[in-house]
Amino acid sequence: MNELPNCPQCDSSYTYEDQAMLVCPECGHEWSKDSTGDSEGDLSIKDSNGNPLQDGDTITVIKDLKIKGSSQVVKVGTKVKNIRLVDGDHDIDCKIPGIGAMKLKSEFVKKV
């Protein structure tokens, strides 16, 4: 059996695998199996004000965003908790209250 690495945040030895991620049950930190511990530093995604974003941050939407294929709109000032950074054009993966799972561009959000 392969030995899983300790959590990079709290150094817990009780980490486990969840699909392509490693998870710490004590502090809730998630990171990629491929990384050496700090995957957030590799992406270097910044919000509209130039502040660096990390997994788990809380953000606020700074512009009304129409949802493609729907009549719904994500309103200015909507707070989104516990974001996840991903590669691609829409670099924030999140769950918006009242709407559900979405991908956002970092240029339309600011860090809280």
TrEMBL record:
Pfam families: YjdM, Zn_Ribbon_YjdM. Residues 31-51 are annotated as: Disordered. Residues 45-112 form the Protein YjdM C-terminal domain. InterPro entries: YjdM, YjdM_C, YjdM_N. It comes from the Bacteria. Residues 3-32 form the Protein YjdM N-terminal domain. Belongs to the YjdM family. This is Zinc ribbon domain-containing protein YjdM. It comes from Kangiella japonica.
